């Protein structure tokens, strides 16, 4: 039986890191967090540390499931603290490392339209082949996405994007980080860009949390007209990677029903990532530095609580 966040406040969190096969060959890395029992212990996750029960037994039945899509150059580990908060509240959280768009391999980073299918394949695996699948509810499924993951989740809930808008946007705003990202790498041979895509929707996803969505301007009112699931939308007020008003604000303005919209004062783009350990901050300072006076750890306590509350309300 699914239990509320309050009832699960003292729940321990089990964790599995695994790989799974996908159609066409290849394996995908994933992490899964879930209610468990036993003694949590510190475990490395990328360059951070999490307190979990490694491979602990799953507890409960009819558990709602949240799939997580990271941003460009990230990994399944980028939102581990949010996944833990969800697991403590009685959810199962599953995150993948997007093939070809992660910190080890960015060879397919421009193929952003491949991402929604990859998340649907993660859902297929968790619901049909994961060892804990019998404890899941197939009717209560949500998604969380950050940056390129936000684009991914918008597509999964029915957003139709027009990637042909990007060249004109980047001609007008060549200094934006995404435009420089595109300009600094050649378009791969054989790459085909769908000008308008409506084939990515996954009807299994009933609610979505979207933080700082990439390519927000590429949807528009017509592209988002078919999005009817509850949405919680986040914007960092000082986002210099995806600046106003073309990304989160463009999505807010175009959605047919107003989402729950939260603008975080003084936050930067990467403040939606989990707080950094000292080692991660030393090695990758560009994703760990916040504006003076902004406390990412304190913000994430509020951020994670709001996400849990949203999914509890919308995946009843």
From TrEMBL:
Stored Gene3D superfamilies? alpha/beta hydrolase
Keyword tags: Hydrolase
Fetch the InterPro entries from UniProt.
Answer: AB_hydrolase_fold, FrsA_esterase, UCP031982_abhydr
What's an example of a GO molecular-function annotation for this chain? Answer: carboxylic ester hydrolase activity
Query: Which SUPFAM superfamilies does this chain map to?
Result: alpha/beta-Hydrolases
Name-wise, this protein is Dienelactone hydrolase
